[in-house]
Every structure is written in C-alpha cells, then in structure tokens.
Automatic annotation (TrEMBL):
PANTHER family: CHAPERONE-ACTIVITY OF BC1 COMPLEX CABC1 -RELATED, PROTEIN ACTIVITY OF BC1 COMPLEX KINASE 7, CHLOROPLASTIC. GO terms for biological process: ubiquinone biosynthetic process. GO terms for molecular function: ATP binding; kinase activity. This is ABC1 atypical kinase-like domain-containing protein. The gene is ubiB. Keywords: ATP-binding, Cell inner membrane, Cell membrane, Kinase, Membrane, Nucleotide-binding, Transferase, Transmembrane, Transmembrane helix, Ubiquinone biosynthesis. Pathway: Cofactor biosynthesis; ubiquinone biosynthesis [regulation].
Amino acid sequence: MRLLRLLKIIFVVLRFSLDEFLLAHERTRWMHGLLKFTLFFRNTSQPRAVRLRLALEALGPIFVKFGQMLSTRRDLMPADLADELAKLQDQVPPFPSARAVAMLEATYGKPLREVFKSFEETPVASASVAQVHFAVLPDGRDAAVKILRPGISSVIEHDLALLDICADLVERLWADGRRLKPHEVVGEFEKSLRDELDLMREASSASQLKRNFANSPLLMVPEVYWDFCTSEVMVMQRMYGTPISQVSALREAGIDLSRLAENGVETFYTQVFRDGFFHADMHPGNIMVAPDGRYIALDFGIMGTLTDTDKHYLAQNFIAFFRRDYKRVAEIHIESGWAPANTRVDELEAAVRSVCEPIFDRPLREVSFGRVLLRLFQISRRFGIEVQPQLVLLQKTLLNIEGLGLQLDPELDLWKTAKPWLERWMNEQVGWRGFLKALRAEAPNYAAILPQLPRLLHRRLTHDNAARSDETLRKILVQQQRYNVLLALIALLVAGLFAWEVVRTAL
C-alpha cells in the first residue's frame, strides 16, 4: 500500500507538471530528457499556482495542510502561489452533501429532520479533514455542524507511513539526521493529525479554550453542544464575524487593524505562557473578527501544549531576546539541555547576536521570521543543538502569527508589543508573587499533610536504635535532632502560611 501511495504521489506531481519547480534549477535541467515520455498526460494548460493547488488537493489532507502553511508566508512565496494556496484554507472541494446527510442519519439513528429544526445541505466551508454545514437546533439556536470526510483515516495512515519512511531515510543518509530527530517530529505531527480525526477530542479542546478565555476582551470561542457531538460529528455555536483575510471589509467595519494586530500577539502569548494550551492551526481560514473587534477562533483540531518547564525556558529566552541579552540566551539553551553542556557560551552568544541584532527596531514588514528561523537553524546545526519536537507546533504557529500580522499591520513591532506582556508574566511566576501563587495551588496538599506531622515527628523520635553501637547511636541522635528541628520549623512555616491563605481567602 505504501508503494502504491508513493506511486500516486509521483503520478500527481508529473500530472500537474510540478516537476518544473525542481527542473528550473541548473543542476537538474538534465532530467528534462528523461521525463519527455510523460508529456502526453500532463496538465500544462493552467497557471502553475492553480496546478500546485489542484495537486495538493488531489494528494490529500497532509499535503493540503502543507499548502495552508505556505499560503500564510507571503514573504517567502511568490504572490501568485500565495493567493492560490490561500483557497486551501476553507475552499477544498467538498464531498457530496448526500453522503454528509447519510453519515449524520447513521450517527444519530434517525432522519435528519428529527435531529435539527433545519439543516443546510450545501456546506459553508470545506477543509482537508472535514466540512461544515449550518443548521438550527430544535430549540432555535443557530449551529455549525462539522462532519469528518469519509475514508479520511486510511488516507492519513498511508501518508504517515510514508513520512516515517522519509524520517528513516533522513536519519540514515544525512549527517545531521539524528540531531534533527525526524522520527520524533513526525510523531508529533502524527499525534496532532490523529487528534484531529476525533471530533470529540476537538470539542473538548474548544471547551477548554473557551473556559480559558471566559469574559475575555481578546478572544471568542464557540460553545459546544455536547448532546449532538460524536467522534465523527461536532456541533457548536454558529459564530458571526468577518474573515480575518478580508482586510478591506474589516476597515469598512471600523476595526482598528493596528490594535487588532497587537491583540493577536497578546492572545497568542496568553495562550502559550499563561495557559500552556494554544491554538496551533491559526491560518486565516480558522479566524474571524467579531463586530466588537474580538477574535473568533474556529477549528480546534490541532492544539499545542507546553509543560511548565518549557514555558519557563521559553519565556526567559524571549525576554532575553527582547533585552538583547544574547549571553543569557546562550546560557538558557545550555541550562535547559537544548544545547550540549560543553558548548562555549561566548561562541553561542556571538552567533545568536549575528542573527538577532539586525532585526531589532524594525517594523514587521522588514523582518522575516522565516529567514530568522533559517539562520537559527544553521546556528543549531553548528553547535549541535537538538530539535525539540514538543516545540514544533509552537514554531509553526509563530510563522502563522507573523503571516497574519503582515496582512493586518506591516508596521507592527512584535518586540515592543510582546515584551511588556512577557515581563509582567515572568514577574507573576518568580519572586513573592510566584511563591504565593504556588502556595495557593498547593494549599489542599498542605491541609492533608499538616494533621499528620505530629505523628510523623513522634515516629521519628521513638525510632528503635537498640541494635546500634553507642557511637553510631550518638551520630543518629544528633542527626535526628537536626531533622526534628527542621521538621518543626517547616511545620510552623507551613501552618502559618496555610492559616494566612485561609484568612486571605475568607476576606
């Protein structure tokens, strides 16, 4: 099956004449002669951008997602390609409406008219994994119904198998292969795709994000209607707004685009550093803007998570970057284990400075994070810095954020926008504020431990040492006394802090 899938990929590439992207290079022009026999079935009547989009659609969801990511990188892509690939965000050819209705009736076990008050059979949006129809619930609430594409699981399984083979080849044939951890990166991608195929999981992610941003002035998230949800169908609140890609319509609606761009940066950092849970598929097809200027998030199939350790090191890195403290950036990479322990701080500091210094104090239109990441990749190769698979989704999301920012406000200064927020967040994590926050989080544990301290102290004091020699016994007793004093101090401190927390909460 893998061989058949590989042959199909080769056939589609040749069918839509995508080999021209490769054969345009001088070193590969000799291959023109070898491919002349394929001219009889090639499609060359349409522009290259259209052919690229059609080929990605024909190859399936993984390739469509790749095209979606490319469409947000207008600084790296020719305009004709970026414009055409943007259609992949929500204009992938839909599957027949009759199949959608049949899937719904099979899922609910009853005719569709008994499930919804009304159902629009023409899909309003169609993406690589699912398509969306509007409906009205029996109680009159407007809803959006998301339905998985039939047979999508088997297609993704074959593509993931091919990616795993490619990862194996990268490790075996490329000197840098092991450092790049291709299998781990493919594993992260596989995990996110499998998650996207379970709409109950997506519904729970939407619910979590909505709870995280309850009453937020930045972001709106649709309510999930759980009674209608299954692993193949997700029903949620219908949202009304303007697609973020329609910049002229946003201006006409009186939306402050500069403020909108700044809010987008703050929304991203809030998700990443405050919650450690972020929307990792933020292409324009998944974002609208409400009439009051708030973002509306859609499609929660791919969500990223970060541990407290990852958040801490990332925040320190960002703040050090903003302060141009490149030595601290180098030290953090070594402390976190991302760079080898024997890395020279001064050399890594100089290398990072050479990448970052030229881009400060410049508006977004003059900065390409795609090229910055490429330079940082070259540095990581030189110093043996390993790829962190858990950060791949974050890096992808950063590229999407930059692409959106370029469309909304090319004069946006990402550094000045993000620095105050991150500094404020770090102040809440360290020092006495961080201590009190940790104390509140651990208060239930302290409440369970405190009543046990007297018994634990008594057990320690009456421990049987009869079998010990006098000298050994003396040493143990001295050590016990130290432990006893330490335990008593800890008990008093914890009791005082717990009492203070109870009083503060009551007030």
